[in-house]
Design a protein that fits this description.
The complex is a heterotrimer of chains A (159), B (741) and C (292). Chain A has helices at residues 26-33, 89-97, 106-119, 125-131, 143-155, and strands at 5-11, 14-20, 52-55, 58-61, 74-76. Chain A has 159 residues and is of the alpha+beta class. Chain A has 2 domains: 5-78, Roll (Ubiquitin-like (UB roll)); 89-154, [2Fe-2S]-binding domain (DNA polymerase, domain 1). The chains are: A alpha+beta (159), B alpha+beta (741), C alpha+beta (292). Chains A and B meet through helix 2, helix 3, helix 4 and helix 5 of A and helix 1 and helix 17 of B. Bound molecules: flavin-adenine dinucleotide (FAD) and FE2/S2 (inorganic) cluster (2 copies).
């Protein structure tokens, strides 16, 4: 059953077109076809959040998204979070507060934090915990990450 | 003007920008032209003899590279402590998921289909899955008696102490296996050929372990093998010894196919096939006086090593030495045994045997206290080891340890005494929840045990570059714990420059000397110390050559030297501490150069409707020598506590016929961001004379204390006696029912 | 990724008619695909037996949550996030909101759908117990027409349900009429409880899921609805337990009788996540907690 389709979408503000099986994982298209290797695979089963990207502004696990469903949509990956060399407030706060250790959860964690702050510019600690609950980190015990989100929230006042 | 010292300051993590922008390169982010993917076909049974292999129809087998044991050019053994583990099973299967053959093809998905089409005729043999069956020798599956290693250590006259003792308390404690669960699964990329030798890039803790293992596998001289560490997404011990196997497998496929081969485990394979924390069982018998003085300790500590020896003797050694904890007792006997079963080999995991034996001891100490009617902290205070006193293995404590002060600080921060009383009173009124607070006191030896460091003979080099920066050449890997950053701080201060003037070379055996493995909380204390010395040597060389005046600019001096005379490199070799004594035969002497000391307090709520335990507050106080980087150090402790809370409450490996049945993240449960309490960390700093700027090791320490502190808190809350890690709701339901609550 | 995509096929349907047409032309051949949070996990693991999928994601008719005077209709493609941001769900169907909040975490809530959760027919699914308590009805469509079934009679065995091969779930209807009965006597008390007992506090599959509503009049049970997940081959309504307490005064005897009766409603097993014994005991405790 040969099955390939043309999928057009926007990645980090640039239009792309790929020809691929519609059930190919968005994760694989990003990493392999588009060489955007900042998005990580920690489990392939939707549990760890390392593959987190924003799909039309919403946090999703790219390992669970078939590329066919991305046609016409817009995707933000970790590569698209900073503006040039200017880090996003969340990225800077992760560095300042020790939110990244081994770094493998960091891309997904940064996107989850950014998505949270977009929806809720001044979350409580509980809301931060809930907003990041789908992003597993084995290194930090999360405390530095919470601090990073609180710090980012202060750097980037509610808009 | 000398720069502000870097040590003690929270400078930004050196590779921080790369990590937050997604630019950091992990092994799966690499690809090479013409690259194939590799995968492993594994045994479906725990023990047996392979009679035949079938390659079912459905994929183009002529396009697929297949490697079996017969293809191995050198020795089919994974070089470690004993040579008992094959790279690929030739005929005998000793554990479920044992590697039998390897496949490579450019299309990863086709390869998955190929894996499904390989079937085996295997004649099953009876297998051993429990400590008891292993000890009873039914059947013998390894050596003469299913024992990888035994230790007997101790001092004094234990039998006499028990004969006269007014009170004897006994107990048996168990811990289950734990998966490291680094979020980046294992992976390697290899290139190999007769002409080019073997190069591997991958996720690892110990490049030189792999270097040695590949040399044996290919019967190749070490110079023709190159091992490069990529950014590594967590290790926790899980990338200490196992990567040697994956590197070997990828290299074999690369060698046979003549193409680069990348082998990345998916989560399920990583969980089901690679090493875990050793399950354990500890029996304590303790003789104690009515006033709470320890008179005799008789400890039997046992770990399940799985099917091959791997690092079990070393894990056993650390667990055995830590089994009597931070206490002084004149009469101690500890028997340690590592047994063989047909489970996949258990291996290195943060703490290395100590969390297991410390869980047993610290839960037991609360029971001893209860038996004589003393408060748990009182019992400990009466027995803490003090400077000048002698440990179970005969080490005279040289550390300026003050466990009383550490415990005071921890109990104070946690408001322990007040809460202990308040909760006990509140729990009497029947409600649906119970609150409790408990603690554990413990120590963790930093660095290799005994003469380990002498045998390793580690080296660190530093190199002046033409642009005036200094490059650090060490095999110590950054796996998240902060090696790059603390090395930059140590080097910067030793050289008198800014951290920006320090560059950390990527660990690559073609470039860096063997500084030993990145394990055992040794990186900062041992390798960091060598780095400090190497930097001093570099400075001295520049001074001697006349390029550096006493208040001169080091960068300028480096530039001038390199321009005029060419490369400048300085090194430091590990020098055995002359004052330290260690007897490998009798297992007596100075087990560790120094220890980290700690008291951890956990506050819990147990829900008697669902039997779930929730940790409300956690206090971690420790003395770890000088803290090089406060944020990284705090992060290490918090991360370790979180991992230990996972072990204590959630992480339960379900074994079925010797195979991990819950090898997915959906059913092997680690803590999420909503499952952890605030973790409050405090450091007492007593500089250690042999560490860089006075630092000791901290990486493993936080794994030791949480489980017993939580167990003691649950006991305080509910009155039930928890003696097995993890404390699942299912177990608590059972215990509460049995207690008639 | 353990599957070989060459063995799979997916078509995207642009409207409901197209999807139903595909399903009816080769009944049993095509399988609906919504948010993919169940299906993609199977694909990843190399355990997805069905080979041809019709993607529903672009069918706008299946989206949205709409209220009329006497009911609320949730489109099959409504996500957990949609449920969580809907004011009527929050105000009138707190058990549905609680279930959505406790399902997965943000990324799953953004993709997982109501229709997918129901049709996946996992006994451990978290939304169904809430739907059972509210007396939900399902709206099913095929090219043969539409029909409505009471949700309580939809599942009839492990992964077996009243859904033909050519049918789709298009919506779920929750009656609002119960909600309006607020004005009762002074002794009237209304309680609703949702307890998910997972292995941890987020992103967990339930070991037991318990949803209930009770109306008490002067301490006597009048209306009671209890539903549980993970304790039987399907999610279940605890009819025997309900019956045993209806019109009884709350008290230790009633509770004991209800606990006993509950044993007839559920048949928990040992599995990788928990034990039959634990599930039985905790289900009883949750019932007791409800009635205390
Ligand atoms: C990490 C993770 C966490 C999760 N946590 C939870 C949890 O806490 N609680 C919980 O209950 N579930 C949980 N799930 C499971 C899953 O997210 C839910 O069941 C979700 O609602 C499924 O919806 P979907 O649209 O993604 O389904 P899909 O995967 O698209 O489909 C699931 C099934 O439903 C069928 N189907 C879909 N739509 C229709 C329709 N309209 N008509 C007929 N059949 C249809 C499909 O054919 C398929 O068989 C979790 C999953 C993951 C990966
Ligand atoms: S890789 Fe997608 S959630 Fe883990
Ligand atoms: S930093 Fe390593 S997993 Fe989060």
């Amino acid at each position: 059953m040969p099955d390939a389709m043309e999928v057009s979408f926007v990645v980090n503000a640039g239009a792309v077109q790929v020809t691929t099986h519609p059930m190919a994982r968005l994760l694989d298209v990003l990493r392999t076809t588009l060489h955007l290797t900042g998005t990580k695979e920690g489990c392939g089963e939707g549990e760890c959040g390392a593959c987190g990207v924003l799909l039309d502004g919403r946090l999703v696990n790219s390992c669970l998204v078939p590329i066919g469903q991305v046609n016409g949509s817009s995707v933000t990956t970790i590569e698209g979070v900073a503006s040039g060399e200017q880090l996003h407030a969340v990225q800077q706060a992760f560095i300042d507060c020790g939110g990244a250790q081994c770094g493998i959860c960091t891309p997904g964690m940064v996107l989850a934090a950014a998505a949270l702050l977009d929806l809720n510019p001044s979350p409580s600690l509980d809301q931060i915990r809930i907003g990041l609950a789908g992003n597993l980190c084995r290194c930090t015990g999360y405390m530095r990450i919470f601090e990073a989100v609180v710090t980012a929230m202060r750097i980037k006042p509610a808009s | 003007m000398p720069p502000v010292p870097a040590i003690g300051r929270a400078i930004p993590r050196r590779e921080g920008v790369a990590k937050v922008t997604g630019r950091a390169r992990y092994v799966d982010d690499l690809s090479l032209p013409g690259m194939l993917h590799g995968l492993t076909v594994r045994s479906p049974v725990p023990r047996g003899i392979i009679r035949a292999v079938h390659y079912g129809a459905g994929v183009p087998w002529d396009e697929i590279t297949v490697v079996t044991a017969a293809d191995i050019p050198g020795r089919n053994v994974v070089a470690l402590i004993l040579d008992d583990q094959p790279y690929l099973a030739a005929d005998r299967i000793n554990h479920a998921e044992e590697p039998i053959l390897l496949l490579a093809h450019a299309d990863k998905q086709l390869l998955e289909e190929a894996r499904r089409l390989v079937t085996f005729d295997i004649e099953p043999l009876p297998a051993v899955f429990t400590l008891d069956d292993a000890l009873s020798g039914a059947p013998i599956i390894w050596g003469e008696n299913n024992l990888f290693k035994s230790y007997f250590v101790g001092r004094g006259d234990v039998d006499a102490a028990f004969a006269d003792a007014p009170i004897v308390v006994e107990g048996v404690y168990e811990t289950g296996a734990q998966e490291q669960l680094y979020i980046e699964p294992n992976g390697m990329l290899a290139v190999a050929g007769d002409a080019s030798g073997v190069t591997v890039w991958g996720s690892m803790q110990c490049p030189y372990y792999i270097h040695k293992a590949i040399a044996g596998l290919f019967a190749m001289p070490l110079e023709r093998i190159r091992v490069v560490q990529m950014e590594t997404g967590g290790g926790f011990g899980g990338k200490e010894e196992y990567p040697s196997i994956i590197a070997g497998h990828a290299a074999l496929l690369a060698w046979k196919s003549g193409r680069p081969v990348k082998m990345i485990y998916d989560r399920a394979e990583d969980m089901v096939a690679t090493t875990k924390r050793h399950p354990s069982r500890t029996r304590h018998r303790t003789a104690v006086s009515r006033d709470g003085t320890l008179l005799g300790m008789d400890i039997d500590f046992m770990i399940d090593g799985g099917a091959y020896c791997t690092l079990s003797p070393v894990v056993l050694s650390r667990g055995t030495i830590h089994a009597s904890g931070p206490y002084f007792c004149p009469n101690i006997r500890i028997r340690g045994r590592a047994v063989a079963t047909n489970l996949p080999p258990h291996g290195a995991f943060r703490g290395f045997g100590a969390p297991q034996s410390i869980f047993a001891l610290e839960r037991h100490m609360d029971r001893v206290a209860a038996a004589i009617g003393l408060q748990p902290d009182e019992l400990r205070r009466r027995n803490f080891i003090r400077p000048g006193q002698v440990s179970a293995v005969g080490q005279v404590m040289a550390d300026r340890v003050d466990m009383d002060a550490i415990l005071d600080r921890a109990l104070d921060m946690a408001d322990y005494h007040q809460k202990r009383t308040r909760f006990a009173a509140a729990n009497v009124a029947a409600g649906r929840t119970r609150k409790g607070i408990g603690f554990a006191t413990f120590m963790h030896g930093a660095g290799f045990t005994g003469s380990g460091e002498d045998h390793l003979a580690s080296i660190v080099s530093v190199e002046a570059t033409a642009d005036g920066t200094v490059r650090v050449l060490s095999a110590s890997t950054e796996i998240g714990q902060g090696t790059n950053t603390i090395f930059s701080q140590i080097a910067a201060d030793a050289l008198g420059v800014d951290v920006e003037a320090i560059e950390i070379a990527q660990p690559d055996t073609a470039v860096v000397p063997n500084s030993g493995p990145t394990v055992a909380s040794r990186t900062c204390m041992v390798v960091g110390k060598l780095l400090e010395t190497a930097c001093r040597n570099l400075r001295a060389a520049l001074t001697d050559s006349g390029h550096l005046a006493s208040d001169g600019d080091l960068r300028q001096a480096c530039r001038a030297y390199v321009r005029e005379r060419g490369p400048l490199r300085a090194s430091a070799h590990y020098q055995p501490n002359e004052a330290a004594r260690w007897d490998d035969e009798r297992y007596q002497g100075d087990a560790y150069g120094s220890y980290a000391w700690a008291a951890y307090v956990a506050e819990v709520t147990v829900d008697l409707v669902t039997f779930e335990t929730r940790i409300d507050d956690f206090v971690a106080v420790q003395e770890v020598g000088r803290v090089i980087h406060p944020v990284l150090a705090t992060g290490q402790i918090e991360g370790g506590v979180a991992q230990a809370i996972g072990w204590a409450l959630y992480e339960d490996v379900v074994w079925r016929e010797g195979r991990m049945a819950n090898s997915q993240m959906t059913n092997y449960i680690m803590p999420t961001s909503v499952d952890l309490p605030p973790i409050r960390v405090h450091f007492e700093e007593v500089p250690y004379q042999h560490g860089p700027a006075g630092a000791k090791g901290i990486g493993e320490l936080p794994m030791d204390g949480p489980a017993p502190a939580i167990a003691n808190a649950i006991a305080h809350a509910t009155g039930v006696d928890v003696r097995r890690v993890p404390f699942t709701p299912e177990m608590l339901a059972h215990l509460v029912e049995a207690a008639g609550a | 990724m353990r599957s070989w995509l060459a063995q799979y096929e997916m078509r995207s349907a642009s409207d409901l008619g197209e999807a139903l047409d595909l399903l009816s032309r080769w009944p049993g051949e095509w399988t609906p695909f919504a948010g993919g949070t169940d299906l993609m996990v199977l694909l990843e693991a190399g355990k997805l037996p069905r080979r041809r999928f019709v993607d529903l994601w672009r069918i706008n008719e299946l989206r949205g949550i709409a209220a009329s005077a006497d009911s609320v209709r949730i489109g099959a493609l409504a996500t957990y996030t949609d449920l969580l941001t809907d004011p009527i769900i929050a105000a009138e169907f707190p058990l549905v909101a609680a279930a959505a909040r406790e399902t997965g975490a943000v990324a799953i809530q953004n993709r997982g759908t109501v229709g997918g959760n129901i049709a996946n027919a996992s006994p451990a699914a978290d939304l169904p117990p809430a739907l059972l308590v509210y007396g939900a009805a399902l709206e099913l469509a095929s090219s043969r027409g539409r029909r409505h079934v009471a949700y309580e009679s939809f599942h009839f065995g492990y992964k077996r349900m009243d859904l033909a091969a050519d049918e789709l779930i298009v919506g779920v209807t929750l009656p609002r009429e119960r909600r309006a009965q607020g004005e009762r006597g002074a002794g009237w008390q209304h309680r609703e409880t949702y307890r998910k007992v997972g292995t941890r506090r987020a992103q967990a599959i339930s070991k037991i899921c318990f949803a209930a509503s009770v109306d008490l009049d002067g301490g006597v049970v009048r209306d009671i609805r209890i539903a549980l997940g993970s304790v039987a081959p399907t999610v279940v309504r605890a009819r025997s337990a309900e019956e045993s307490v209806r019109n009884q005064p709350i008290g230790s005897q009633t509770i004991a009788a209800a606990r006993l009766a509950l044993r007839a409603d559920i048949s928990p097993i040992d599995d990788i996540r928990s034990t039959a014994d634990y599930r039985l005991r905790v289900a009883g405790n949750l019932l007791e907690e409800l009635l205390s």
